[in-house]
Design a protein that fits this description.
5-stranded mixed beta sheet
């Protein structure tokens, strides 16, 4: 049965600090009904290992052997959530070694799967009357008065009708929290709650599925502007972890989110919409960012079923598989793993959004898509046969005809070449090419001055119009992109020096240095408005903290995979006045973090992973007066012993906020 809380319980176990401490590595993978063993292995690998380009190109057997080799002789915990077929376990168990003390936790609606996997069975039951009432009150009165630490007090005049509403949920936690989320937004009066009860009774009278009836009531109660946002979440695959920034940018491109005064659309109104859906338990948070904002979310499969059903009734979007049974002309088309979509696109004159994954080559795909002149969202994933040694994708000039495009995300083969006509996409606000390994992009890209979010691939060549000429050394017009708020770009001299100073709206900058590892020493010069900065594989030889510490608005800094290859980093006195999050990961040369007096006065979270040469840290942590959380993972044994065993009351306080895995 769906909605019993299987995933919630599994995640509670998975995230428990004692469980994390007990196991050396752990992974949580959402399975769903549509899966491949390779995708599940990649999900496990992403949790336990450092992902590489080589890993992404591996087939199932090679990837599985890498996972097995890594897990061998380690005590691990693997959670497989929402398993629908025993074939999942049969396919994965080949790559999960029988290490002593390791565990695999499976959630499923089918008891036979657990029996076939020889698992110890734990059957979830519906909540009892007392448990249901407590959960209902906690959700309905999140900030209400409490008679004890755990017990929320319900006004006497609402208790009778409240218990009737809870009773209709029949002990299903999902139905209870959705009902509570609905009532938390209503007036706390008997007449208001009785109206909800009558509506609930009507919905339940329409069929035997009590949970779906309650979910439908909650959907009907959504404000009009949230209904479209909720339905749009149904375009993502079942059990998909949805990146919040991607979701909000797609909402904006579709016109669901409107600006509010001078507030930035995505970061203001769009995030408020998402938080409202979360508060109503229509969407679930998976991860939050360093500042508490939602990083990723997911949709319970019952709520996704509801979204798809309502979308179909209202012709909001169409979901298609491999076979098109009849002609159609949708406004939004979702075609995951579709193999014959091209022949059906020529009639899609009303198409506004296309989200699809197709195998190439498909004949006439672009020429057929040309009829969709009003396309505003294009999210395209192209797959190729793994046997091809150097698969390449060349975009045709027709891409420039979609002048209404606002959101364009592309994931394709190893090498992708874009035509000059990409410069005609003058309304584009988001261009996401970050997961493409080799990109060949013309200078005309700098004409896209409405861009707010530009994510380029790991190895990008900017192509001049003169045939076969390449350029790495100039910013080529990026200083005209004054609306840019987010930029993912490869390390070049113009990036690290003055090339970005005119980008006064830039808030997040991600620089990676895969192709520019050289003996050049850069004087780092970044715009003062930066809020978040990530440096990855940059191989900087001079301590970057001396410069970065002067950025007045910087609140989050991550140095990853030898962004700096020196032995010490020093946070000077008075530096990083607003920094709240500092992350150091894979800095294999780093031996020491030095914090001078009055440095990092606002730092709340410090994360250090896989910095093997660091042996001392505790006395530096003592200087950070605002520190609330320290996370250490895969660190030197001497450093761990220092944290655990150094005596003193001031060090006891640090140990209370430190987690070690």
């Amino acid at each position: 049965m769906g909605g019993l809380g299987k995933t919630t319980l599994a995640k509670k176990v998975y995230n428990d600090p004692d469980v994390n401490h007990h196991f050396q590595c752990h992974a949580l993978v959402y399975v769903s009904q549509v899966y491949t063993i390779r995708e599940l292995l990649m999900g496990i690998a992403n949790n336990i290992m450092r992902e590489t380009d080589h890993m992404r190109s591996m087939g199932e057997n090679q990837l599985g052997n890498e996972v097995r080799k890594y897990l061998d002789e380690k005590r691990y915990l693997i959670v497989l959530d929402d398993v629908w077929s025993i074939q999942v376990w049969n396919g994965l168990c080949l790559y999960l070694p029988e290490s002593i003390g390791s565990r695999v936790l499976i959630t499923t609606r089918n008891e036979q799967i657990a029996l076939d996997a020889y698992a110890k069975l734990y059957r979830l039951r519906p909540l009892g009357e007392k448990e249901s009432w407590e959960l209902f009150l906690k959700k309905t009165f999140p900030n209400g008065s409490r008679s004890t630490i755990s017990q929320v007090v319900c006004p006497v005049e609402l208790e009778d009708v409240g218990k009737k509403i809870t009773g209709k949920c029949k002990g299903l936690p999902l139905a209870i929290v959705v009902s509570g989320g609905l009532l938390s937004r209503k007036e706390k009066t008997p007449s208001s709650w009785e109206k909800i009860l009558r509506s609930m009774e009507w919905h339940l009278s329409q069929g035997p599925e009590s949970c779906m009836g309650i979910l439908a009531l909650s959907y009907r109660d959504l404000p009009y502007f949230l209904k479209s946002c909720f339905l749009y979440c149904g375009v993502f695959p079942e059990d998909c972890e949805i990146k919040a920034s991607k979701l909000i940018r797609m909402w904006v491109a579709e016109g669901f989110v409107q600006a509010r005064g001078e507030e930035t659309v995505e970061e203001g109104v769009g995030e408020d919409y998402l938080e409202e859906l979360i508060h109503r338990s229509m969407i679930q948070v998976v991860k939050r960012k360093w500042d508490g904002r939602v990083k990723s979310c997911r949709m319970h499969d019952l709520l996704r079923d509801l979204a798809i059903s309502k979308a179909k009734d209202s012709k909001f979007f169409e979901v298609r598989g491999n076979i098109f049974a009849y002609p159609f002309n949708p406004r939004r088309l979702i075609a995951h793993d579709s193999q014959n979509i091209s022949q059906h696109l020529s009639n899609c004159h009303r198409l506004r959004s296309l989200i699809c994954s197709i195998h190439i080559p498909q004949e006439n795909f672009w020429s057929c898509l040309r009829s969709a002149k009003l396309l505003t969202v294009l999210d395209l994933t192209l797959t190729v046969d793994r046997g091809l040694k150097r698969p390449e994708m060349k975009y045709p000039k027709e891409i420039g005809e979609f002048i209404h495009l606002k959101y364009f995300r592309f994931l394709g083969p190893r090498r992708t070449r874009f035509p000059w006509s990409i410069g005609r996409l003058i309304n584009l606000e988001t261009l996401d090419l970050r997961h493409n390994l080799y990109l060949d992009i013309p200078f005309s890209i700098w004409k896209l001055q409405q861009l707010r979010h530009l994510h380029l691939g790991a190895r990008t060549i900017f192509r001049m119009q003169i045939r076969d000429q390449r350029c790495f050394s100039s910013h080529l017009g990026i200083d005209k992109m004054t609306n840019l708020q987010t930029l993912y770009v490869e390390q070049h001299g113009w990036v690290m020096r003055r090339g970005l100073l005119k980008l006064t709206q830039l808030r997040k900058l991600y620089i990676y240095g895969q192709s520019m590892r050289s003996n050049i020493s850069y004087e780092l010069i970044f715009p003062s408005n930066l809020v978040e900065l990530i440096l990855n594989y940059c191989d900087l030889k001079q301590d970057p903290m001396l410069t970065l510490g002067k950025l007045p608005n910087l609140r989050a800094l991550k140095l990853i995979n030898n962004a700096y290859i020196g032995r010490k980093i020093t946070c000077s006195s008075g530096a990083f006045s607003r920094l709240e999050f500092l992350g150091l990961k894979g800095m294999t040369y780093l031996e020491e973090l030095i914090v001078e007096e009055s440095a990092l006065p606002s730092l709340k979270t410090l994360q250090i992973y896989s910095c093997y040469r660091m042996e001392k840290l505790l006395h530096q942590l003592q200087k950070l007066k605002s520190l609330q959380q320290v996370k250490l993972e895969d660190m030197n044994h001497s450093l761990i012993e220092e944290i655990k065993n150094t005596k003193g009351e001031e060090f006891d306080k640090i140990r209370l906020i430190t987690s070690i895995t």
